[in-house]
Amino acid sequence: MAAVRLVLAAVGLLALAGWGSSGPGVQTLYRSSHRTIAAFAQDGQLIAWLSAGTGACNAVHVLSLRGVEVTLPKPGTNNVTCRWTMGSAPVDLVVASDTGSALWTLHERTAVELDYVVGADVSQPRERRFSQLAHTRAGAGLWLGGIAGEGKTLVYSFTTVGYVNQVACLSGGSCRRRIVGGGVRRIVGRHNPLVPGTEAALGIATAGGRIAYTPAAAVSSTGRPVASDSLPIDVLDAVTGALVSQAQPDGEPLAVALSANRLVVLERSNGKLHVCWYDLATGDQLGTVRVPQHTSAELTTSDHMAAYHVGRTIDGVDLDSGREQVLARAATTPIGLSLVGTRLAWAENVKGTGRIRALIVGSS
Predict the structure, then answer these.
(1) Tens digit of pLDDT for each residue in 252-269?
(2) pTM assigned to the model
(3) Beta pairing partners, 112
(4) Cβ neighbours of residue 93 under 8 Å, at least 6 residues apart?
């Protein structure tokens, strides 16, 4: 844990960047001289990004906003991340500030769709491969739902799709598919136990030692597991799986976000998109606003504000008043849009190089 303490004890970056309690506007926290950024995450005083570039190892960088950077996996060690071909499929990254741990995904399109879930710790920067999920192009197999991280919690969600009658399918009959399993797994050291009580899961979020996930309700004609407005979204204790609350969405949930006291869901109903927010303790809906049709299925929230983006435009909704506003306009499509307290941050790539931008929004 010495490296973790070093990261958290280092000083300098925020003060040098000119941050204040309200912030003068969008600030650049980090700028790469020659590499792009494939994924971005933040939690507490840590930011992390996955850098990609030709001729050098892909790597995850964890930086304290007080000034010290650590590279994961440890340079020179054998790992799958280093030489992975970063293609058109997105990769995801999350970080847990209390443990100094990062978790990320790597996706490959081959004869089967393949997702690695890998991670490393600042104190032990060797890559750990927690899962390898694969499904056929027809849909049978394991589907990665998503990953989430905050505080001491790192989790990922998955769904298992199988055939209703595999023998009939192989003999030329019906190849209808169904959900046969799934759940949420939590990273504990080198292990990834199933969170009790969880079932087939798509999008996932975590905050304050709790998780919320979108349940997989059915299998589409392409074999992909999909959500439905008929199933509630469960909020559970991340360790014990004890039920905290349930929220019943008005539409099909496309993305979920979680804070200490709020569950926020991007929902689609009758062809329209809404951001809806719910009381975490009771599951009661507190408010809803309609958002543009092209809103990305990426959502982040604090107790007081939710943020999302429509192309390059980053919008927010005040969860106390329901008022919407444009928060910023990124130079390119924002990567890993994330809100921690009042710090809204994202990565963007401009002319072949990456940078991390941040803005102070709302109230704490």
Answers:
(1) 999 999 999 999 999 999
(2) 0.92
(3) 136
(4) 39, 40, 41, 48, 49, 50, 60, 102, 103, 104, 105, 147, 336
